[in-house]
Design goal:
Layout lengths: L6 E5 L4 H13 L3 E5 L9 H7 L7 E5 L2 H6 L5 E4 L5 E2 L9 E4 L8 H6 L4 E3 L12 H16 L3
Parallel strand pairs: 1-2, 1-6, 2-3, 4-6, 4-7, 5-7
Helix pairs in contact: 1-2, 1-5
Length: 153
């Protein structure tokens, strides 16, 4: 992990291919991936490993049982991403340390957005018939936005 890079958290991920793709992205950007249990798949799932290709050994991974305990480690420097948020992801402070994404089918639980409404952001969706983006795409958008604001080109 590169100091100063944001870290990614997946809250109770359900689809191994998405988690594998995000793992590959996180390895490529030298960030850290936090997974909060329970998962909708086994950590040994072949689809998880296949999506991450041979980059899985480069992944800086931590697994947690409790989201709130993880958040305490970040001292308030975290942000949640949800289609139910009202603020755009581009308004997130550039020094946010942990970027948290919810489950693929349910998003984040209501108690998270109720407890931390000021830390919730969304990615705009322009077609009224589309409910959400694929989580791997959402993580890519937000992570690279944050990185490009920090890294001189």
């Amino acid at each position: 992990m590169i100091k100063g890079h944001p870290q990614i958290c997946l809250f109770r991920p359900e689809i191994p291919q998405n988690t594998g793709n995000i793992g590959r992205l996180v390895a490529a950007t030298q960030c850290r991936l936090h997974l909060v249990r329970p998962f909708g798949f086994s950590a040994q799932d072949k689809n998880l490993r296949r999506a991450g290709l041979d980059y899985w050994p480069f992944l800086d991974l931590e697994i947690h049982d409790d989201l709130e305990a993880l958040l305490e480690q970040f001292g308030g420097s975290f942000a949640f991403f949800s289609t139910k948020a009202t603020k755009m992801y581009t308004l997130m402070p550039v020094d946010t340390d942990l970027l948290i994404f919810g489950q693929e089918t349910k998003g984040l639980p209501p108690w998270v957005l109720e407890r931390w409404p000021d830390k919730a952001y969304k990615i705009p969706i322009f077609h009224p018939g589309v409910r959400s983006l694929n989580i791997a795409n959402a993580v890519s958008i937000v992570l690279y936005d944050q990185l490009m604001k920090k890294v001189p080109v």
